[in-house]
């Protein structure tokens, strides 16, 4: 049984989530406290020792993020609850942070709880929350870090250090500027969707490249690019025009 706390300044949101947990997750989740502020939660957390906190992002006085920063030992999971904010949601997604959009839907709540149940332990990763804080500070069109799943767990890498991503069936090999290679348990399409940056371009069905790391383009039927590590990557004939136009617009 997972012990849970709800932290939300709006009483009707607390009541609604409490009812959803009881009706749809009652066999797996025990609600041990409901707090109307971050300050109240900071007092309750050491007492009840929750496995997961359903944490509202936008609260007066102290936001959910500010509350987390005050906790040095985060030995619990966090599922953020928030209204739609594209930048904030994208920052969470890039940092492998779970979240629920308000109004919370029963199916999405059950999926979040099921993901939590499948984990070997409920320790909230300091790396993930730190990556989220770093990404939230990056008020540009791109994020600083990305969380990628490997066979050994999550790896956090700086996006600008990715040279190219190479399809390997249902996996993807990430080539870094350092020369390191990472085998990631996501398809190239998944990686492309997650990065979602104008600085990356799918020049071939098997290759997504960082345009900032292209040293040279050699013309041909489709041509090929030479990256900063002197690796050559072919450009598909049917993507040549789009690639040249995209690259020139950067």
SSE arrangement:
Blueprint: E1 2-7, H1 11-25, E2 29-35, H2 38-48, E3 52-56, H3 64-69, E4 77-82, H4 86-94, E5 98-101, H5 106-118, H6 126-137, E6 145-150, E7 153-158, E8 162-168, E9 171-176, E10 181-184, H7 188-195, E11 200-204, E12 207-210, E13 214-218, E14 224-227, E15 232-234, H8 240-248
Parallel strand pairs: 1-2, 1-3, 3-4, 4-5
Antiparallel strand pairs: 6-7, 8-9, 8-12, 9-10, 11-12, 13-14, 14-15
Summarize the structure.
With 250 residues, the chain is α/β, with parallel strands linked by helices. It contains 8 helices and 15 strands. The strands form 4 sheets. It has a 5-stranded parallel β-sheet, sandwiched between helices. Strands 10-9-8-12-11 form a 5-stranded antiparallel β-sheet. A 3-stranded antiparallel β-sheet has the order 13-14-15, with no helix packed on it.
Strand content: 25-35%
Rg for CA atoms: 21 Å
Secondary-structure arrangement, i.e. CATH architecture of the largest domain = 3-Layer(aba) Sandwich
- State the share of residues found in helices, binned by percent: 25-40%
Strand order of the largest sheet: 2-1-3-4-5
Number of domains: 2
What are the key terms here?
OB fold (Dihydrolipoamide Acetyltransferase, E2P); 250 residues; 2 domains; alpha/beta; single chain; 31% strand; 33% helix; Rossmann fold; 5-stranded antiparallel sheet
